[in-house]
Amino acid sequence: MSWTPTYHKRNLGNLDDLAPNTKAQAMKWYQYCLDNKIDVLIYETIRTVAKQRENVKSGASETMKSYHLVGQALDFVPIKDGKPLWGKADYAKRPFLTAIEYAEKIGFESGYRWGWDAPHLQYNYKGYGTDKALTVAAATPINVMSKEEVLALQQNLSKLGLDTNGIDGIYGKGTTNAVMILQRRTELVIDGIAGKTTLDKIDQLLEKKSLVGTPGTFRVVTGTFGTPEAAEAAAKELGFNARKGAKDNRVYTGVFTSLESAEEARALINAKFGLNPKIKSYNESA
Ligand SMILES: [Zn+2]
């Protein structure tokens, strides 16, 4: 069974307010907490100047140059049995200290180490106020599904004619793409996350034995890269496997079991390299 933190919705909402690179790292940290069933409440991320002024006045903060003002810090509290543990000593206990250690490993500075601000995690990035929208790194969506649930999802997506790039229980790029194709074609919000609405839609479609994608065997010809090595490197950069054709010297991206996934790969190649490779349908035995 999947496990969801007590304040999951609030956590996601607060994470959403962070500056882009800080958000990407903070989501990585939150995913780690989730995977290890470490229950936390992220109770504050971005802070207004007025609020900070109040904090300085009351002594809760020492400076007007808070990393919260620029979206580069979050405050969290350990949760046990649904209740927050506000004591400084609680942060020293496992698994919460493990969460702090992981945060440090991925680049956060911990207020717990300062000795006076245990909830505080700060992402310095390139200094105060440097994390702006111009330097966006995309955040990985939070996955609350167990490996078994991801496996079932991948099997269902395949039945609907979509390619998840393997049925392996890992919610990776291929599965995210397949979910996005499904969402686009069924007019749901396109976020690549298999939430309740998306899962319900999948159940409905399976019941009606509908196809969302076009099943078959497809490859994207990337021979336009000149050499097999260049094509292979390009395909890998986009998250696909390249392989050499049997009869000629051209290179294809990995075999796709859905036309839509092949189209997605072609679109990525087009966006990244300005090329428009052909999609070819073939059968494995030929
Ligand atoms: Zn803080």
Structure description:
There is one protein chain. With 286 residues, the chain is α+β, with helices and mostly antiparallel strands. The protein folds into three domains: 8-135, Muramoyl-pentapeptide Carboxypeptidase, domain 2 (2-Layer Sandwich); 147-207, Orthogonal Bundle (Muramoyl-pentapeptide Carboxypeptidase, domain 1); 215-281, 2-Layer Sandwich (Alpha-Beta Plaits). 39% of the residues lie in helices and 14% in strands. Strands 1, 2, 3, 4 and 5 form a five-stranded antiparallel β-sheet that branches. Strands 9-6-10 form a three-stranded antiparallel β-sheet, covered by helices on one side. The protein has a two-stranded antiparallel ribbon with strand order 7-8. A hairpin with a 6-residue loop joins strand 7 (242-244) and strand 8 (251-253). Helix 6 (147-159) packs across helix 8. The mean pLDDT is 84.
N-C termini distance: 43 Å
Ligand roster: zinc ion
* CATH architecture call of the largest domain: 2-Layer Sandwich
What does the largest sheet look like? 5 strands, antiparallel
Helix segment count? 10
What's the number of structural domains? 3
Order of helices and strands: HHEHEEHEHEHHHEHEEEHE
The shape, in one word, is elongated
Query: What structural class do you assign from the helix and strand content?
Result: alpha+beta
Residue runs with pLDDT of under 50 for 5 or more positions? none
Q: Note the beta-strand portion.
A: 5-15%
What CATH calls the topology of the largest domain is Muramoyl-pentapeptide Carboxypeptidase, domain 2
Name of the CATH class of the largest domain: Alpha Beta
